[in-house]
Design brief:
12 helices; 7-stranded mixed sheet; alpha/beta; 17% strand; 4-stranded parallel sheet; Rossmann fold
């Protein structure tokens, strides 16, 4: 087995230039030595193949240049896309993303969060599975903590960019009710209810107002898992006429189950998603969904994270509101059994500006 060549150190460059290791260190950082000396040191460093040791740099500067991005579940295609965009946004800001997947498991989320902190990330950006987890307070004590989608009431976050789920869930149910649906299945990735993710609470309240028969079902993000849940619901004697999925990836599972059972979307089951991923418009029929302002989300998160790292400054909470994208996956239904369903016509997107709010805290 070939052996690796030894790492070139500052001491090697010092020996080749006749300078002290301190002078070499200053030269490589562009400090306290003449420009000519800086260039001579860099030339020697390049010739010897010197590479900056990230651990040594972290020890000397207190920063590594790495940002942890802890996703709730990368089985969710929308989170995959968001993680990729965050990675590119952070890179353009001179930072590198370490993207990890909690697999929708609160225990794994806690373990991964602490591992990233132990690796001395300059900040941790989280799409939390369990916003009330005790580990978040420990994370916030050791690094910059930024949350996406849900606030973290148990920790002192540096920034929060959250989703207006109250508005989104309410509008979704009213949209389906307006199309004549009364039996609606709501698919969600977790049974946890938090101030910023009150899906089950809003579902039951709005259902009571509109006299809907709604059921809430915890559903995995992966295609096979979501398909299995939808298959069981569609096989029941009193099957729902519509599905509201709190992730487009779950809606894909509903489409698969409908096809397996020889049914059709939207004639036999209307489907409404909640991410408006680009793939959703390519389905047959195209999936109706709610669109979040992802570009604004990424820009806000990157800017607030970098500001917190450099200035140790907290940002006001930013709230993002979704807009409905109604396509061919929702049919209008009458109350009579002989009424033929008909697709709802497409509706244009409505711009909803995000708004900043003071950071609020809710006791755990």
């Amino acid at each position: 087995m070939p052996t690796r060549p030894p790492r070139v150190t500052l001491r090697d460059i010092a020996a080749a230039t006749g300078l002290s290791t301190a002078a070499v260190s200053y030269a490589l950082r562009g400090l306290q030595v003449p420009i000519e000396t800086q260039q001579r040191v860099r030339d020697v460093a390049d010739r010897l193949g010197y590479q900056v040791d990230p651990i040594a740099r972290a020890l000397s500067s207190g920063r590594t240049g790495y940002i942890g991005v802890l996703c709730g579940s990368l089985e969710d295609i929308w989170q995959q896309s968001l993680a990729a965009r965050l990675g590119r946004g952070l890179l353009s800001a001179g930072r590198h993303a370490l993207i990890v997947d909690a697999s929708n498991d609160p225990a794994l989320e806690s373990s991964l969060a602490m591992q990233l902190v132990d690796q001395r990330v300059d900040a941790l950006i989280a799409l939390p599975v369990d916003p009330r987890g005790e580990h978040w307070a420990k994370v916030a004590e050791r690094t910059v903590l930024v949350s996406i989608g849900d606030g973290i009431p148990t920790a002192r976050t540096s920034a929060e960019v959250v989703f207006d789920n109250e508005t989104g869930v309410s509008e979704a149910l009213r949209l389906l009710a307006g199309a004549g649906h009364r039996r609606i299945a709501v698919l969600t990735s977790t049974s946890l209810t938090t101030p910023d993710r009150p899906a089950e609470v809003v579902v039951h309240r709005v259902a009571a107002e509109l006299r809907l028969r709604t059921t809430v079902h915890v559903t995995p993000h992966d295609l096979a898992g979501a398909c299995a849940v939808a298959h069981d619901l569609l096989s029941s004697p009193d099957r729902p006429t519509a599905f509201f999925c709190l992730a487009d990836s779950m809606a894909y599972g509903v489409y698969a189950a409908v096809r397996e059972l020889g049914l059709r979307v939207p004639d036999d089951a209307s489907v409404l998603g909640y991410d408006d991923h680009a793939v959703s418009s390519l389905l047959t029929p195209p999936l109706s969904s709610f669109r979040w302002p992802v570009e604004e989300l990424v820009e806000s998160v990157v800017a607030r994270t970098v500001r917190a790292i450099e200035d140790d400054r907290r940002s006001r909470r930013k709230v993002l509101t979704p807009t409905a994208q109604v396509r061919g996956s929702i049919s209008a239904r009458g109350n009579g059994p002989r009424t033929r369903s008909r697709p709802i016509r497409d509706q244009p997107a409505r711009d909803q500006p995000a708004r900043d709010q003071p950071v609020r805290r809710t006791p755990a």
